[in-house]
Amino acid sequence: MQPDFWNDKRPAGVPLDIDMTAFKSVVDVFERSCKKFADRPAFSNLGVTITYAELERHSAAFAGYLQEYTDLKPGDRIAVQMPNTLQYPIAVFGAMRAGLIVVNTNPLYTSREMRHQFKSAGIRALVYLNMFGKRVQEVLQDTEIDYLIEARMGDMMPAAKGWITNLVVDKVKKLVPAYSLPQAVSFKSVLRRGAGQVIRPLVVGLDDTAVLQYTGGTTGLPKGAMLTHGNLIANMQQLRACLSQHGADGQPMLKDGREIMIGPLPLYHIYAFTANCMGMMVTGNHNVLITNPRDIKGFIKELKNWKFTCFLGLNTLFVALMDHPDFKSVDFSGLKITNSGGTALVKATAERWEKLTGCRIVEGYGLTETSPVASANPCGQLARLGTVGMPVPGTAMKVISDEGVDLGLGERGELCVKGPQVMKGYWQNPEATAEVLDAEGWFKTGDIAVIDPDGFVRIVDRKKDLIIVSGFNVYPNEIEDIVMAHPQVANCAVIGVPDERTGEAVKLFVVPRAGGVTVEELKAYCKDNFTGYKVPKQIVLRDSLPMTPVGKILRRELRDTV
C-alpha cells in the first residue's frame, strides 16, 4: 500500500507527510533546538538537570576537544559505551558536531562482543564509563582505537557531591574492577580543555551516515545499520507528526517545550535513542534519564520527583513496576502518553497499566534498519490493542508472498517498509544489504503481518528465527556458533520460548561429546561469552537433535516439544 492509502485513516491533527527540507542535518536540528529552547530543561539524571543551553555548551566543548586535540576526521567512528547518564547526550551530540559517526555500544557487552563491533566499525575513539574500564583494557590491543575518554558517574554533579559519588561507586559498592588505561583522558578534562574552542564548520548532507547502529545478523555476527542524518531527521519528524494528534481539548497531544518524558530504556538502543535523544530534542522537551531501571525501588522514588507526562517502556518494565507495592503511590495525573516498543506488549499488562495509571499504552513497531519507528498506534482511546497501529506519515507498507508477489488487504505475508527512515544499508556489507533492500527502496522486515482494511497492521509471526528478550534481538546462530566452540559440545540448537517477564527467553539444547558436560559448566561458559540478555535461561542436554536429511537442525520441531 502506498502512503496515501492511510490518508483518510489518520487521527485529527496528524499531518499526512513530513517536510524533509526543514533541516540540513541532525546537527542543524540540534543547534536550532538548543537556541529555541535555551532555558528549558533538556536532560535530568542523578539529581542534576541541564538546560538546552548547557547541553549546547558542553557538547560544543566536547566537539572542540575532538577537533583541536585529536587527529580524528569527519567520517571517523567513535563508540559511545555508557548507560543513561548526562554524559551520553553530551558525547553523542558533541561527536556529531565534530563530524564523527557515532557507534552506539552496549556497556554490558562481553569482551568478545566488543571486539567484533569495534573491529567491524573501525572504531578510532571510545567514550566509556570507568565501571567498564577492565573490559576496555582486555580488548584494546585487538582494535584500532587511538583515543579513550573516560567518564565517571559523578562527572556532571557539583564538585563535592561528584567526588563522594565516585568514591562510593568505586570503594564502597566496589563497582569498578581494577584496570590500567593510562592513555585515557577524563570526561571532565575533555570538557574543560575543549571549552571556548571554535568548532570548525561541517559540510554534511542528509545522505551522510550519522550513526552506525549494530543489529544481530542471521549469520550470527551483528551488522552495522548505516543510519543517515536524513533517516534520523525523518524519524524525529514522523514521531512529532504522530504526537500532533489532537487530544480531547482539540490541541496537539505533545506540546513543544512542555513535556516531561521518563527515559528508563537504554539510549544506546535505537528505540530510546530516537525517542529520547532525537525525538524529544526536536520538540524541546525534558528527558528524565533512569540509569539503573532494574532498581525498581529507586526508579519509583525518582518517578515521585516529577509530574511526568510521557513514559517510554516495554512489557518487562511495566510488569516489574506494577508488581512493586510503592507503584500505587506515584502521581499519574499528568501522564497522557505511554509508549511501548522493542518487544510485543502482553494484553494483560496493557489492561493492568491502564487501570492503575489511567493511561492507555500505545504500541508501535520498528527495527534498527528503520531508525526505528515504522508504525505507531494512535494515542488514547483510538489505540487498538493487538496491532502495531498504522505506518507513520511518509511511510508505505505492503505484504508479499514467499515468491515476492504483492498480497492484498487481510492476507498474511512478509511485511515490507518503504520510507525516508529506512537505512542506507549495512556497513561494508553489500551482500547483506541486497538481501533485505531492493532497488525501489523496499525493506524486507522478516516479520509476517496482515494489513487490515481499516489500515491497522498486525504482526502475526516471525519469518526469521529471531528471539526478542526484553526488547533486545537475540539471533540463535550467534549463540550456537559460540556454544559449538566449547570442547565438550558435539551439537546444539537455540530457540525462543515464551517468558512472562521478558516476553521471550533463550532455550539451549546441547548434545554433549563423549565425556559429557554439565548444565552448570555450560551456564558459566555462556555467562563468560554473552551479554546477560543472550545467556540461555534454560539449558537441556539431549542425545540428538531433529534434523533434515542434509543435516539442518529443525528448530520448529524443537519448539513443538516445549
TrEMBL record:
Domain AMP-dependent synthetase/ligase: 30-427
AMP-binding enzyme C-terminal domain boundaries: 478-552
Protein location: Membrane
Membrane topology: Peripheral membrane protein
This protein's pathway: Lipid metabolism; fatty acid beta-oxidation
Molecular functions per Gene Ontology: ATP binding; long-chain fatty acid-CoA ligase activity
InterPro entries: AMP-bd_C, AMP-bd_C_sf, AMP-binding_CS, AMP-dep_synth/lig_dom, ANL_N_sf, ATP-dep_AMP-bd_enzyme
Protein's name according to its UniProt entry: Long-chain-fatty-acid--CoA ligase
Organism: Pseudomonas fragi
Sorted UniProt keywords: ATP-binding, Fatty acid metabolism, Ligase, Lipid metabolism, Magnesium, Membrane, Nucleotide-binding
Statement: the UniProt record of this protein carries the keyword Ligase: yes
A Pfam family reported for this protein in Swiss-Prot or TrEMBL: AMP-binding
GO cellular component, one term: membrane
